[in-house]
Design a protein that fits this description.
The protein starts with a helix and ends with a helix. It contains one helix and no strands. It is rod-shaped and about 100 Å long. It has one helix spanning 2-63.
């Protein structure tokens, strides 16, 4: 009887540990996915800002009188 009780408790512990480990792994994966998405949004925004500044620079060069 004690062997069965020990077996059942061991299986419950193992199942609980596996479930917790899977949950943590999923949370880490979701977190890294969100981080990458946020970095991509920031990169796109900065690229737009750089393009606008480059366009202003080109406009300034074109409007500047040549000597």
């Amino acid at each position: 009887m004690k062997k069965y009780l020990l077996l059942v408790l061991s299986l419950l512990f193992l199942f609980n540990f596996t479930a917790c480990a899977t949950k943590v792994q999923n949370e880490v994966y979701d977190s890294s996915t969100n981080d990458v998405s946020e970095l991509l949004r920031t990169l796109i925004q900065k690229e737009k800002e750089i393009n606008e500044l480059n366009q202003k620079l080109e406009d300034c060069k074109e409007s500047k009188p040549t000597k």
